[in-house]
User: Fold this.
Amino acid sequence: RAEYKENLANNIAEKEKQNPLSASDKKWELTDAIYHQIIIDGYWLSAEGVWLDNRPHPQGRDPITGITTGFNLLMPMKIKVKEQDFIVWVNRGWAPRNFSQRDIVPQVEDLNTKVQIQGVVFADAGKTYNFGQEGDAKASDGRRLIQNFSLVNFSQKINLPYQPFIVRQDSEGNDGLDRHWSKMDSGASKHTAYAI
Assistant:
């Protein structure tokens, strides 16, 4: 297990050094794009965004507030792939939880103008333990508030072809979301210690 995690971390580090892919080049296969840097040019579909609940701060703890748990904002971006409309789902960043009212989220508003972002390709948005079925909870901005995200289900609702991955946004934006993601740790040292 330690060797697998070490290889994975090295694989990610190697791909980070390569030139970024373009989301508009083609319909990507996950295996060709995973862990690569990628550039996306398109338009936010702001109304289709969803908040993922119970997400840890990118560094483990917010250095200003000390808060450890909050939300990630997932939002599709409409792009062109060979003149055809496609969507790419983007994890735009983290926002802290309001502990007195759990559905309070920051207002993230987007103008209907073309933007360019850069990020890293992941297979999914990560999962948290979910007790029972997802409900119809709404955040304070009207977007859905969910525990776990199904790329297939949410993409089908938009009724456009989609790239088969989530992009974790690294580039800066003026949306107030935290994107100080921690470097992916292989965790190999922990597993090696267990083995000794």
The longest strand covers residues 69-81.
